[in-house]
Amino acid sequence: MRIQLPIVSVNNDSHHGGRAALTCRFRCGDACFHEVPNTTTNPYVGDVIADALSRRTVMRAAAVVTAATAVGASATVAAPKASAAEPAAATAATSTRHASRGARGLRFEPVAPNTADTVTVPDGYAQNVVIRWGEPILRGAPAFDPENQTAESQSKQFGYNNDFLALLPLPGERHRQVLVANHEYTDEVLMFRGYDAANPTKQQVEVAWAAHGLSAVVVEEDRRSGKLTPVARHPLNRRVTATSEFKVTGPAAGSDLLKTSADPTGTKVLGTLNNCSGGVTPWGTTLHGEENFNQYFANATRATDKRYGLGTGATERKWERFDKRFDVAQEPNEPHRFGFVVELDPYDPTAKPRKRTALGRFKHEGATVRLTDDGRPVVYSGDDERFDYFYKFIGSKRMKKGSSRAVREHNLSLLDEGTLYVARLTGDSPAIEIDGSGKLPADGEFDGSGEWIPLATATAKGAVSHVEGMSAEEVFVFTRLAGDKVGATKMDRPEDIEPNPHTGKVYVALTNNSNRGVGSNAKADEANPRNANKHGQILELTERWNRADSKKFAWTLFLVAGDPSDPATYFAGFPKDDVSPISCPDNVAFDSYGNLWISTDGNALGNHDGLFGVATRGDRRGELKQFLTMPNGAETCGPVIQDRRVLVAVQHPGEIDGATAEKPLSAWPDGAGKINRPAVVAVWRKDGCDIGV
Fold first, then answer.
1. What are phi and psi of 397, to 5 degrees?
2. Positive or negative: CA dihedral 615, 620, 624, 628
3. Distance (Å, rounded) from C-alpha 330 to C-alpha 261?
4. In 3D, which of 122, 130, 190 has the Cα closest to residue 158?
5. Using the 8-state DSSP alphabet, how is residue 136 labeled?
């Protein structure tokens, strides 16, 4: 007998906004309905404050506060219907002036917010579905058959719920690139007809294991159109799943905290779970952040488990019935082996992926890399939880140039030695000026200073803790607790963090936190200036002397998201009658001109999620334009911005309360009545010119 899906009222600070219960259940294990894991009294951003900033900023900010309504009307591929909940800012007509002016790289007519069940792109642009869930990529893989899916077939096919994407060059093969994708989680009620959530079958569970993980697949470009198509059975094509073997490296490798009955060495792990965003390294590998791993483990009781959000009872998917490693009562150390950053070598399909313990264990949204002036890696990563922290790792070994085996092996060790830091921020405006409404303080900006607090240092000879009362191994395995102890600054769900390759400034997406200022929760502060914050913000961080290895930084809120007609929003001082509305920033990326591109997750304005571009410098700094929108229930993920192409992952289309495999609530991508299939979409200009120029 099929159980009835629960109807859950959602608070919009989850990953999902109005998608409600279905996403909450399968993506993050109802994280937003659980008690906040961080119960420390660490300061919130802006608890310590002073004042500053120029007259020019004040005057420009005043113009922002008084600006109001319009955003560009869209020209679309599929004529979307307007949403009844569409904000006033999105309804005013716009001329094609938006397409002809703007920052270089952003000269397109913005798409209007909508609820169309399609990927809507600007006028003059075309698109294609590059690859869908279940498409064969390895030799021997059968064609996708949702009625007869097996673990063996799924392990050779493109995985489910693609998130982070990377497109890497493929030397020697003209017009081809390597596409790497994360497969974050499975949505069983949309995957299997007749799925009984109370009694999943062994076959369904094993298919889900095989649908998690990573895919690498070579894609070929049609130079006439910009279209990308997968090259099936290419030697570099690869699947990594929840049962693939991983190597544990760095300071926690071999720790007693990581040893299990199946792995008494503490150096080998089966699988990777809930890979969200990621990054590409300068030495040609990809990084993948294990995020909401907590939801896969049952029967946890320890305080350390609670701090990581593990539950005390059965899990949603019931995997513990089929493998004891998902039962904490039987394998207490198994969850300690997840929540790391994974490094994959996409050019060597035989190499085991590695879990990099020196980068710490928490809910990594992703991991992005820049190099110090002398060539050492610096990795930024956010812990995607309400009131948790963001981190920086500074490596101690320099990257070598070249492609020899010796050079590659050296570079594959760079993330095992160095120091892990956590951020502490202060604001610089009087507390009385931060009233929770989002009104700008007298100095015209939400801004302040910060420092990186060292947690532990890993070397070839061993590791040293900088946290009183914790060993180095404990710091790297229980990183959240280390952040608690040193007084790190609680943030509102720090997600993707990306350095601007042109300016060195670092951008932190803070998705939302509707618990801010509610009940006994902390009220607004300078970096989180709105109570009941449904829409989120983006923080711009400038390292001292613009050095990646600096221990001090300045910060400002670059963008406070929402409807531009709302006085509580802010777009880096740009007039708000000329920007698109945006809600819940999640993943970020840069184009070759230094513009920031933002994908959203959980739009709380009543419209579908989308992809946006915004200028970060010059006289158009803060001008934000919507480039595309998602189908019903889908989230925008993994943006890759190339000169001639934009790539996005359409994650969990049709993930709406009440939807099932039998009764899909989206017709994307294959038409009405067909099973919904997460997919990757490429977008390009019809005239063959570069994007937005």
1. -110, 145
2. negative
3. 9
4. 130
5. B
The whole-angstrom separation of Cα 168 and Cα 215 is: 13
Q: Quick one: CA dihedral 335, 336, 339, 344, positive or negative?
A: negative
**Which of 379, 389, 388 lies closest to 458 in space, CA to CA?**
379
Which are the contacts of 515, defined by CB distance < 8 A and separation ≥ 6? 11, 13, 36, 386, 521
The strand pairing partners of 513, in sequence order, are: 533
Q: Which two tokens stand for residue 470?
A: 């914790």
pLDDT tens digits, one per residue of 46-105: 332 223 223 333 333 333 333 332 333 333 333 333 333 333 333 333 334 455 688 999
Type and span of the H or E element at 56? helix 55-66
Q: Which residues pair with 510 in a beta bridge?
A: 494, 537
| CA distances, 300 to each of 17, 297, 307, 315, 323 (Å) | 28, 7, 11, 11, 16
pLDDT in tens, 241-269: 999 999 999 999 999 999 999 999 999 99
Omega within 30 of 0 (cis) for the link into 669: yes
Cα–Cα distance measured from residue 649 to residue 132, given in angstroms and rounded to the nearest whole number: 10
Structural Rg of the chain based on CA atoms:
23
Return the number of other C-beta atoms located less than 10 Å from residue 313's C-beta. 7
User: Phi and psi at residue 326, in whole multiples of 5°?
Assistant: -90, 5
Q: Which of 335, 347, 256, 271 is nearest to 297 (CA)?
A: 335
- Check: CB of residue 316 under 8 Å from CB of residue 205: no
- pLDDT value, residue 62: 36
Regions of the chain where pLDDT drops below 70: 1-21, 24, 27-28, 30-36, 39-100
Contact call for residues 162 and 649 (beta carbons, < 8 A) = yes
207 CB-near residues (< 8 Å, 6+ apart) = 149, 150, 151, 154, 191, 192
- The CA distance from 193 to 202, in Å, is 15
Contact indicator for 459, 417 with CB cutoff of 8 Å: yes
User: Order of strands, edge to edge, in the sheet holding 354-356?
Assistant: 268-270, 245-249, 354-356, 341-344, 286-290, 275-280
Two tokens, residue 457 = 């240092």
- The token pair at 549 is 């290895």
Contact status, residue 277 vs residue 334, Cβ threshold 8 Å: no
CA distance readout (Å), 433 to 427, 512, 525, 568: 11, 21, 9, 13
Q: Which helix (H) or strand (E) holds 191?
A: helix 188-191
634/599 Cα distance (integer angstroms)? 12
Grouping H, G, I as helix, E, B as strand and the rest as coil, residue 175 is coil
Per-residue confidence (pLDDT) for residue 288, from 0 to 100 = 98
What b/e readout covers 74-84, taking b as 16+ CB neighbours within 10 angstroms? bbbbeebebbe
Q: Which helix (H) or strand (E) holds 485?
A: helix 479-485
Would you call 169 helix, strand, or coil by DSSP? strand
What is the C-alpha to C-alpha distance for residues 562 and 604, in angstroms, rounded to an integer? Answer: 8
Query: Is 437:406 a contact under the CB 8 Å cutoff?
Result: no
Compute the C-alpha angle 443/522/312, nearest 5°: 145
**E strand or H helix at 450:** strand 447-459
* 375 burial level (CB within 10 Å; 0-12, 13-18, 19+): middle
DSSP state of 209: H
Report in angstroms the alpha-carbon separations of 565 from 91, 114, 578. Answer: 11, 17, 11
Please, are residues 540 and 506 in contact by the beta-carbon 8 Å criterion? yes
Q: Are 634 and 668 in contact (CB under 8 A)?
A: yes
Q: Could you tell me the two tokens for 624?
A: 């934000």
DSSP classification of residue 618: S
Structure tokens at 500: 């601007």
Give 512-543 as a DSSP string: -BTTTTSTTS----SSS-BTTB-S-EEEEEEE
| Three-class HEC string of 408-428 | HHHHCCHHHCEEEEEEEEEEC
> Nearest 5°: CA angle at 594, between 218 and 602?
70
